[in-house]
Amino acid sequence: MSIIKPIVLKIGGSVITDKDGELSARTEVINRLAEEIALAKKENLIIVHGGGSFGHPTANRHAIKEGLRSDSQKVGFAETHHVMTVLNGLVMDSLVWHNIPAVSIAPSSCIVTESGRIKSFDDGAMKMLLNLGFTPVLYGDATLDEKLGFTILSGDQIATYMAVRFDAAKIVFGVDIDGLFDSDPKINKNARLYRHLTLSELKDVQEHLRSPTKVDVTGGMCGKVNELTPALERGIQVEIVNASKPNRIYKALAGEKGEGTLIEKG
Ligand code: IP8
Prior knowledge:
With 266 residues, the chain is of the alpha/beta class. It contains 10 helices and 14 strands. The strands form 3 sheets. The chain has an 8-stranded mixed beta sheet, with helices on both faces. Helix 2 (27-40) packs across helix 4 and helix 7 (155-165) packs parallel to helix 9. The longest helix has 25 residues, at 73-97. The site of Isopentenyl phosphate (IP8) has 17 residues, from helix 3, helix 4, strand 7 and helix 7.
């Protein structure tokens, strides 16, 4: 048995949850995305989802990303991981009921970070799942950290790490805007969408991106772009599409010409 080149699909927390609320899932969006994923019939798929209004407010309240400084944070670490399993449960529910052989992998149980970067990953189960044609599902999580005690690991870092580790053909980032813009389209209505970028063009664009204003402990679009370089350097294509709009994820998975931003090594 050999692993065929997978596609890594990262679904943003701002797509599947309402970031203005707390613990507020968009179940109708989760169901629509599961339908699109099922329709695309990709056997070689790795799914990663973000934290949105589940992980971020809890992580922020207990300063989990900054690491273990007081015993009182421990319950906050447990709570952050727990609320992520709750959101993951909703995603799993939908994927499985759409006949996708999706199996959840808790990052906190198989990944250890060092100063926020993935240091080790126990990949035995993941390799077998991929070999057998399952769809592993991971998520941004509270993880143990060799320097900090614990921290927050973003779904974006997990997605690019898995893409490199399993030699993916492509990473699809499903976000709540149409792609990568030259400024924030939620603030500036004249923001221009980049349809295609090379790695070196992306580096120029990076300088204009600012961190998001809302509570997002892992850096929003800015953090996402920072994670992309190692994958792009290896020739892995990256497509950023609006997963809040119907059919965009289906098209990206099916390899149809998309309406988002395509980034390649160049
Ligand atoms: O939303 C962070 O994952 P992200 C998850 O992909 C937590 O950045 C626990 C805040």
